[in-house]
Amino acid sequence: MLRGLLGTKLGMTQYFHEDGTVSAVTAVQVGPCTVTQVKTASKDGYEAVQVGFGAVPAKRLNKPLLGHLHGQGPFRHLQEVPSAGIEGMEAGKVIAVGDIFQVGDRVRISGVSKGKGFAGVVKRHHFHGSPKTHGTNDRWRAPGSIGSTTTPGRVLKGRRMAGQMGNKKATVPNVKVVAVDPQRNLLFLKGSVPGAPNSLVLVWKREVA
Q1: Separation CA 73–CA 37 (nearest Å)
Q2: Less packed terminus of the chain by CB within 10 Å, N or C?
Q3: CA-CA distance, 29 to 176, in Å (whole number)?
Q4: In this structure, how many other beta carbons lie within 10 angstroms of the beta carbon of residue 193?
Q5: What is the pLDDT of residue 166?
Q6: Local confidence band at 207 (pLDDT 50, 70, 90 cut-offs)
Q7: Which residues does 8 contact at the CB level (< 8 Å), separation at least 6?
Q8: Residue 161 phi, psi (nearest 5)
Q9: Neighbouring C-beta atoms of residue 175, cutoff 10 Å
Q10: Nearest to 69 by CA among 40, 37, 45
Q11: What is the pTM of this model?
Q12: d(Cα 37, Cα 178) in Å, to the nearest integer?
């Protein structure tokens, strides 16, 4: 059984509960996803399920990929998703959001964070900056020393410095499912999730010990 599906982040909104309280939620359109390949231990060395999500014109795909899909799709995204086994999985099977997720579930969600371009250390790593008095004039947002001279004579790997901010994979664990709308394939998740509106996300059930 699959534990996760691909989806599209739509944006944030408010959800009013029956007791009158309100929660900030993120609406995510999850699925429907189509099983495009089932990998077995005997043939592939491990068990996995690949699904396709999102429509795309067939002319955008090359012949090897169209042959791989065997007439299914064409899909914009193909990805192996977490699965608790391959029992009952076969190519062409359609999985909807209501088949996996329920209100109250705890899920993990992964996406690509918003790219914010080249950023300094104050914005990127929350450095507090240099003193703004006692002769300091142009070093308020500077990183300061990045290493010694003779020893070690180089900048150590992992040093927090200015550079590209965002635009990398981010995962948020333990997100609560506030509501499920099977008719519109919508999940309402409490709080914010990574990514910009209309970006691709992967939502899967957290493993319960």
Answers
A1: 12
A2: C
A3: 16
A4: 25
A5: 92
A6: low
A7: 28, 29, 54, 198, 199, 200, 201
A8: -140, 175
A9: 21
A10: 37
A11: 0.79
A12: 31
Please give the structure tokens belonging to residue 135.
Answer: 């002769």
- The DSSP code for 2 is B
Q: Which alpha helices (H) appear in 37-186, and where do they start and end?
A: 41-44, 63-69, 121-125
Supply 195's token pair.
């990514």
Do the Cβ atoms of 165 and 116 come closer than 8 Å? yes
pLDDT score, position 110: 93
Q: In 3D, which of 141, 147, 145, 146 has the Cα closest to residue 128? A: 141
Type of residue at 40: T
Between CA 158 and CA 163 the distance in angstroms is 12
The secondary element (H helix, E strand) that includes residue 185 is: none
Reading the block at residue 193, the tokens are 């999730």
Q: Is the predicted pLDDT of residue 171 greater than 90, yes or no? A: yes
The rounded distance, in Å, linking the Cα atoms of 72 and 52 is 9
